[in-house]
Sequence to fold (312 residues):
Amino acid sequence: MALITIQDFDMTRAASQPDSGLGRWYCQQLERGHILFFPRIPFELSEEDRAFLLTQQQAGAGYHKNIAYRPHQDRITGLVKRSRQEEERLRSLMRAYSRRVIRFMAALLPPYASRWRLDYASFRPQEERGRPLRLRSRNDLLHVDAFPTRPTGGGRILRVFTNIHPTRPRHWVTSETCDVLIERLAGTPGLPLPSPRHHSIWGRLGRALATAGRRVGLPLIHRSPYDAFMLRLHHYLKEHREFQASSPKHVWAFPAHSTWIVFTDMVTHAVLSGQFALEQTFIVPHEALVLPERSPLRVLERLVGAPLTAAE
Ligand SMILES: [Fe+2]
Fold:
């Protein structure tokens, strides 16, 4: 796993040359489990907005991980004790941030741009070191991302992070990539291989129930065997003391005012310390991948010998 540094990215020029091949190369690096790193924030973020964000502490928010912004609903969640004015300012700031990041990502990664699903953005004002979180919510234990309430159906979790702390770096640890871990760990005690039978019979039933439930307002979640496995892997890694202690590790210090992009369902990662980060998530559908054979889904399907996502 490597850090690929991109200096002076020219967004206008990249947007005018979507077929140059460079965007495809960046996608390949991301899908291999590398991190794209920008020493300076590669999209507009005004000094005024940054200063406002730095005043936003979440008093008594031990169990609120982040402030989330939902672009499709233009809604903000996870706020603690804010005036209406402050809430409105935060919402419009997150809206503008989200739009700028989308434009930047569309210029950087044309193969994904017209096909991704936009997920939430977040603002993370809490100091990460020593946060009182439940084990499965802890950021400082190595894991791959899997969303319990928003299964991707085989789509990939691509995230853009920006450290807006005025001086301090954000420290990450990364370890082996998900494809390697699946090959080694899937099918061992505690991490059973998903069952394709579950996919064909119970999968169809589960999907039908979830669809019917949503129609009457019940928040039912249907996970494909792939999604269920990835969520299990997330828990398994965080609970696995020996893996946490003895897996090979790289420590990264992302400096103040830098940005980095990573498939967080590929790269095992943990956040050791840092405060004040912005983040936007994209779900890249499997059909848009440039190296689909490297994806966790394909690696798992090869092991099981059957498809593991629901056909829509
Ligand atoms: Fe994570």
Notes: The chain has ten helices and eleven strands. The pocket of fe (ii) ion is lined by residues 143, 145, 264, 269 (CB under 6 Å). The CA atoms of residues 183 and 299 lie 7 Å apart.
